[in-house]
Amino acid sequence: MKAAPEAQKRLLDLAELDTTLDRLAHRRRTLPELAEIDERSKLYARLVTQVIEAETEAGDLAREQAKAESDVDAVRTRAERDQKRLDSGAVTSPRDLASLQSEIASLHKRQGDLEEVVLEIMERREAADTKVTDLIAKRDEVRAELSAAEERRDAALAEIEKEVAEVQGRRTTVAGDIPADLLKLYEKLREQYGVGAAMLRGGRCQGCKVALSIAEMNAIKAAPHDEVLRCEECRRILVRTAESGL
Ligand SMILES: [Zn+2]
Q: Which of 36, 83, 160, 162 has the smallest number of CB atoms closer than 10 Å to its CB?
């Protein structure tokens, strides 16, 4: 392939812009915010589940407490009713009186036991409610951190996109100075090797950093100026400049 030396040199400008684009793409993929968002998202999802579990537990205890309180009420109502009967004087038989008093005593004992149960549930419920409050606070804190990281990521991405657009604009201009067949070869090599063209500087390919042999340098010296050369080592287009050491 043949191309004017000036067009070949433009490949080096193009390669530099492409390297910048690669660097920007790498930065976009490796933003520290991405790892942070990933970590916070997982933690947030875990906390959402934990809040639901804790709320369920607190709800169960609330129902358990209501049930125990209603048991206490039932026993108290029955004891009060018995007490009224006793106080009314309607029961006169000593045996019935003794039986009634014995029932009242046992109802009081039962009420005391049930009140103990209520207190024990209330303590567990208080702990469960505190757990719900703490988990909700933690969940909301993580959500806020997640949102902040997302905002920083979006700002960083917008910044990168702006730079990419600017570099691509310059790239379009440079590509316009390069003949279509040379550009096509460059693009193909770029796809294969990451970089399509490299400068020959001081007898060394700047793409793979390998020094050319004397025989290779002599062959290059003998080659016409518009001949498109390739590095034998890395296959990139080898561009001659004043610094090539020829
Ligand atoms: Zn090379």
A: 162
pLDDT digits (tens, 9 = 90+) for 159-176: 999 999 999 999 999 999
pTM over 0.90? The answer is: no
- Cα separation, 185 vs 174, in Å, equals 15
CA of 168 to the centre of ligand 1 (A): 25
- Give the whole-angstrom CA distance, residue 68 versus residue 163: 68
Q: How far is the CA of 90 from the centre of ligand 1 (A)?
A: 117
Query: What are the pLDDT digits (tens) for 178-229?
Result: 999 999 999 999 999 888 999 999 999 999 999 999 999 999 999 999 999 9
Concatenate the DSSP letters of all residues of 28-62 into one string: HHT-HHHHHHHHHHHHHHHHHHHHHHHHHHHHHHH
